[in-house]
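Example noted here:
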Amino acid sequence: MHLTVFGATGGTGRLVVEQAIDAGHEVRAVVRTPAKLPLEHPRLRKLQADLFAPDTLKPALTGADAVVSALGAPSRKDTGQICANGVRSILTAMEATGVRRIAAISAQPVLRSGAGEPFWFRTTVTPIVRAVYRNNYADLELMERILAESSADWTVLRPPYLTDKPGTGRYRTALEANVSGSALTRADLAKALLDVVDDLATVGHAIGVAGL
């Protein structure tokens, strides 16, 4: 499969690139600063582009089978709607190049209903987390809305707190609900992203994902 990865220099994005290459995929990593992705491989192309200028993204998307968005705000104070505006730009370029499949990272607290979470958690912990990271979640909510209103074959993953521990290769998922009980390693989130890209049953859905 030919994959185009956005957010490839981030903590999860780098792992998506590495795991995709290990799985035999051809990978195009869209980066602002190529030096921030030191990985080199015959099946990896690093393409420098302006995320918010769709025309500059077309070379990275032409001929791609699917897109993985590992975009994320650099800090909780960010108010630039990086994920929403970035995905809007990506979708514009996808439409222009005929690419339909996209899997993107969101976050567990974006699900307002709290489905799948214990009552005590969604009435105590979740409201505090939403308040502290309100800008980030507002960005992700808008991103999800943009995807849902698009004609793309989209899937969103909503992980909980992410860690940099070694991946286990295993995780739990819930369709249109959150998965309670544990954090998730970035490596396992990267695996989940690559797994759903090839799973057409997940198209048009937001999926909760967490560690075992």
